Amino acid sequence: MSQNADGRPADSDRSPVAPPDADATPDSEPESLLELLADDDARELFERAGRPRTIPELAAECDVARSTAYRKVNRLVEADLLVPTDRPVGDTGHATEYRRSVERIEIEVGDRTDVEFST
Fold first, then answer.
1. Which Pfam family is an annotated match for this chain, by its short name (predicted)?
2. Architecture of 30-118 per CATH?
3. What is the pLDDT of residues 25-72, one digit of tens each?
4. Would you say the C-alpha torsion 37, 49, 12, 9 has a positive or negative sign?
5. Where exactly are the structural domains of the chain?
């Protein structure tokens, strides 16, 4: 079985990842974003993804197990806080790298919790 540069099995049936939408902002509810970013590991993974990195790179930099990094990066992707991109490796492979979809998150708590994103 062949593997990608990030150690995951190659999957020739997988469709290519679309390029990130520069105008995209996270769609998640403020409460779920707050809960996700309250997790120390998830927040550090998000912070370290200022430039594109693979999950093994993020796991090493954040000193977390790869399985933990995969799970939390997937949650960050689902929340639209990280965007995946495929980088070609060699003639036939690719590595999925992740980067932040926003540079700044502002949270206002009052009668209603509001979250604002800046790209």
1. HTH_20
2. Orthogonal Bundle (1.10)
3. 555 677 788 889 889 999 999 999 999 999 999 999 999 999 999 999
4. negative
5. 30-118
